[in-house]
Structures are given as structure tokens and as C-alpha cells.
Amino acid sequence: MISVSSIPRAMVLGTWAFGLGVLTVSGNGVLRWGFGAADSGAAGVFGGTGGDSLSTMQLNPAALTSLQSSEWSLTVRALIGQGDFERSAGGTSLDRSLGAFPEAAIVWRLPEQPLWFGVSFAPISALQAEWNYLDIPAEGSGVSYGAVGHESGFLALKTNAALAWKINSQWSVGASLGAVYSRVDFDAPFIFQTNPALAGAKVDLDLETDGWALSWDVGVLYEPTENLSFGLRLRPEVELDNEGSAYADFSAQAPGLTDPFNNYDASSRNVLPLMVGVGFSWQATERLRVGGWGEWFHWKDSFDEFAVALSGGSNDEINGAIGTDSPDDGVPLEWEDRIVVAFGAEYRLNEQWLLRGGWRYGASPVPSNLVTPLNASINEHAVTLGLGWQREDWRIDASYAVEFGSKQKVGTSGYRAAEYSNSSVDLTVHSLGVGVTRSF
User: Fold this and answer.
1) What is the pTM of this model?
2) Using CA atoms, how far apart are residues 169 and 171, in angstroms rounded to an integer?
């Protein structure tokens, strides 16, 4: 069996989750904000109180009743990321920094009934980090896999159906039921963190898991006057229990093995947090609408640890050396609860053109001592701009957002090694969106 005393006390080079785009923003953690180009241009403030079909379907089903007619909406968003990682052994930049994804919704207003029904599809997380840097030799044993790629990805696609009921002129309620498809990808040197027999062992791990989970939301819309509305939305935790496969290279950790490679069945467990959102929308003048939206994310319980379990190892020599064919581990995350606030405005320039803008803020949920290039949800601000063109039943929208924050510096890392001690990560994300909406 491999002796723990001979194993480097090394840390995970990446603990979590990033798929189609680049890294993420503020207290939202791995979750997206702003659905559709129109709402994204106003920092995501109107979806909970009176947006279009796409933003209301994803944010507050009760707000479907704000739609004056049936409509469909289709948006494509692209993300461009810029990232730098620095430490004493040298620095590097993101290898892959471009991604794109679609999102769509259709809502029907039932004739002569105070009911609205809709279906939608959108990524609620589409994130990726791809870096290439040296795997520093571990303290004590000098175990290293050299200059290798460090990749992690998390994708969550939500498809849902929603029903909203306008109880009277002031109150509406709504509910949504859907399914979330999620996928976790990890390909980098991995260090066991909490497994009693393997804590500190380093392998080059390539893991892929995916699965489905149910998700539901409920919401309320209150409109005390025709110019003022308030929205409330709740989404409970979503448990993502995924299954897949993994391939582990033990060659640097145990160079005496005849065959250093092992294939496993794999499972991973993530939990999307309980979310509570509340906001307002005010038609201040005939041309100007302003709004605000705030959300609380209960990361503390859902992102305390990332659980990984491997089973059915195919290499008997490795299984005997480590004492099991089914190693598992729990990677500490210790994310903190966060509140994200956003303010935005929409100004009608004339009968056809609309100008939008907004700002979002939320402190990063990742403890500073657990930041690595692969889990750096460190951006705290987002500034947005949007433009809309409307004619008869058609509307075309475009949006731009930049997400940024201060450079995150790590003093003494909280993981099992000094590989990320005295390092820093700096990220900026630009996003562009173009959408088409038609009433019918």
C-alpha cells in the first residue's frame, strides 16, 4: 500500500466546475444572471417584475401575467474571458476564453382566462476554465506531472414549464416545474483531500459525469398601481447527483507500477443553492422605467464540499497498492452565503428605440484561502448596456456586459500543499447578446 508519509501534502489544482463559456461573477457563484438580451442589458433587474417571456420564465413565473399577449423569444449570448494566474513559479493566461449558448421561451396568454402558460430552455450555468501551467513538484516527494493542461467545467441546462394566475388587478402567483441537465468535467492533477488512507496522494485525473434533476420555483407579483410592481421568487436547493467515468494516471505518484493507469466508474454530487429574490419595477415617466433586484444565495450548505466517488477500478495492481478499487474524496469548498443587488433602467428614445443600462454587485462566495485558477468566482461587479428596436409585433435586442473585480491574492492556501500559496488570480468577462422577440 502507498504510505501516506511518502505522499506529497499537495492540493487540488482545481476543485470545481466551469462548460460552454468562461468564469463567472460575484455572489451568483457558478450561476448565471440575466436571461435574454433585453433583461441582460438592464443588469437582469426586470425579469422578476415584468420582463419578456424568457426572463420571466427563468426568474419569476408570476411575472408572466405582465405580458400583454402571447410571445416567443430567442437569444444567443457569447462570452469572452480574460484571465491571468501568477505565482513564484511563473504566470499564465486562460487558454480557452470564448463560448456561446442559446436560450429560448414561448408563453401563451390563455384567451378569456386570467392564466398564462409557458415553456423555456436556458443554461443556468455554462462555465469553463482551461489553463496550461506547471504542476509544481510536491513538497517532500517531488511528485509532479510536469507542464499539463488544467481544465474544469460545469454545465447546467434548465428546461421548464410554468403557469401563472392573475388573481385580481394587483396580485399574481406562479409556479414552475422543470428538469436540470448537468455535466461536470475535470482534467488536471488531483490531490485527495479528506480520504483517510489517501489524503495527500496526487493523480492526474480525467473525470466526466452527468445527470438529471428536478427543479421548481414559485413566485408572487404585486402591482399596487399601474406604474409600480414588486416581485418575489423562491427556488429551493437542486441536488445534482451525476454518474460517469474517470481515468487516473498514477505514474508520477507511484513510478514503480507496471501499468500506472486505472479506469473507474465515477459519481459526483453538487447542490445548487436555495435562492430567494425580491425586486421592484417603476415606470417613473412615460419614457423611463427603473428597477432593482436582489437575491440571497444560501451557498454555505450547498457548497461546503464537492463529493467525488470512484469505483470498480480496472487495474488490480493499483487497487492493491492503494488498498481499494473504490477511492472517494470530499474536496473542501466552504463557500459563504451572499446577497447580490442590481439596479437598472430602460429609456424609450422614440417609438422604435429603447436604451438600457445597469449595474450589479455581489461579493465572491469563495474563501480567499481556497481560490485556485479553476474555481475563481471572484468578480464582484457587472456593468451593462443594452439597445432595443421595436416595430409592430417584433423586437430585436442587443446587450453588452463586463464583469470584473479586484485581483484575488492567496496568502497561505487552505488546501493540502503550498502550490497556490502566494499566488494571485485576475479575471474579466465580457458578454454580448442578441435576441429576437415576437408577440402573437
Assistant:
1) 0.88
2) 6
